[in-house]
Amino acid sequence: MKKIYTLSVSCLLVVSLQAQQGKVFDNLSLESKILKTTKKYAIYLPPDYETSQRSYPVLYLLHGGGGNQIVWVQNGNVLNQADDAINSGKATPMIIVMPEASGPKRGYTNDPTGEWLYEDYFFKEFIPYIESTYRIRKGRRYRAIAGLSMGGRGTFLYALRHPEMFSAACPLSAATFPLTLDEAKERLPQRYKNVTEEQIVEYFNNYSIPELMKKIPGDRKNAIRWYIECGDDDALEQVYVGNCLIHIEMRKLEIPHEFRIRDGAHTWELWRSALPTVLEFVTASFHN
Amino acid sequence: MKKFLLLLGLITLGTQSPAQEGTVYDHLSLESRILKTTKKYAIYLPPDYETSERSYPVLYLLHGAGGDQTEWVQRGEVKHITDKAIRDGITKPLIIAMPDASGPDRGYANNPAGTWLYEDYFFEEFIPFIEKTYRVRPGKMNRSVAGLSMGGNGTFIFALHHPEMFKAACSLSAATGPLSPETAKEYLKRWDAGLSDEQIREWYQKYSVLELIKQIPENRKAAVRWYITCGDDDHIENVYEGNCLIHLTMRKLEVPHEFRITDGGHTWEVWRRALPEVLEFINFP
User: Fold this and answer.
1) Domains of chain A by range and CATH?
2) Which among B241, B257, B259 has CB closest to A248?
3) How many CA atoms, within 13 angstroms, populate the side-chain half-sphere of residue A192?
4) Distance in Å, alpha carbon of B135 to nearest chain A alpha carbon
5) Is the pLDDT confidence value at B285 over 70?
6) Domain B19-281 sits in which CATH superfamily?
7) How high is the ipTM of this complex?
8) How far apart (Å, rounded) are the C-alpha atoms in residues B227 and B250?
């Protein structure tokens, strides 16, 4: 009798311990008609996804240049950090989706020559696919976006260009190209050999963060809750310079935002330690 | 017997507790020949100052505009925060000297007209007075400076003018002064010093924080350890913009420094939160 009792208690313990842990899948994929290829993604499902019958808010979490859908899982320790934040009550249970934007055409924008339309893929195919495949709560209030470096840039651009889609945006150590038209004129032809002057100007107007900030109408300045951060020793000029200049611009334009410069560089140490703050920050939007 | 033991217990308790706490004096003064007046100061002495026979490093902690030598004591909670930092092992025991720079000619620099030479007072009279009146360990490696707002400006000016005097300089929400020669004229209007354009240019070379940073010689870039912090919601343009521009300038010129932008405005909440960081920072070699 004692053995059965001990066994039952142990089983219950194991089951209850398991219920505290979420799940990560890092090698899923979907077909993209827009990009004419298969695109991968990773996903974190919260601890009670299997056992409950509810929908969840969603955080789109973008990787950086040279990374892919695995890096936030592997280097960012998404599973443990999300579980801890949710189990401690600091963050609300949420789904975290990590799309892959790597390869020779890496990046989150539509390219200036119109050949690789990643942004279109993200909004017209990826979001609808994710939000019909998983139990995700509908609507802007329950959708947030965050990312590091190239993904920080993607975060800025997606939230600025589609403010009706997101309630919170957290760019971490964001790349900020192009801050000026001159920058665009100098660098775009290096990557896109046949880009025309007209295409460069259009790309600048579409994808310059300060330009997009300036265009926000007065009554929409607090539409997005922003959490922007960067390390004080970030080696990349477009990151450490760009983030300061964007902060100053947003202050002058009176666009409310949280801005932090912390101890560190362009490293996973910084981004890993930022994740709990991001989860708490977007939770405040999901709770609102 | 019981009463005796109780009394003994109380006496023991009575003699033990004070050793955990430092002491603060907030209206001491000295005569200044340079300023031709009496100048006040406050001082924090560490817990074992009375009972030990050793000397200590010193931190010169500067107040902001509108405040005086009592500001860091009253609003900054310097005693409570420093006692705790020492107890927690975050900082070594130290003396903190808080000079008064209030009044009609408030500020830490010599004024543009040259009629109020506060900086001269600070280096030629105040520091020597403090360092012979109290058991301060001598020399650059035992001396740091920090301050908030106007005192942050003072921190920059003092450490940039006299890098040989300070190991570390920590500015909190520093007023950064004019950020370009063009804005210097406007900035100087408040002193109504009647300076010529030439004099304004000269003043800018000597008192613009950005300019002084640009003038640091190549081989002296690490002469002072810098800790610079500011709140993300600081309402003063000169502060939130100036500190970012200082960071960018120091990065470009490869002047090593720690830079933090934290959550908050131009408030004592930010500065009280920063003080333990400052105390920790000035301890590193």
Assistant:
1) 21-287 (3.40.50.1820)
2) B241
3) 19
4) 34
5) no
6) Alpha/Beta hydrolase fold, catalytic domain (3.40.50.1820)
7) 0.90
8) 12
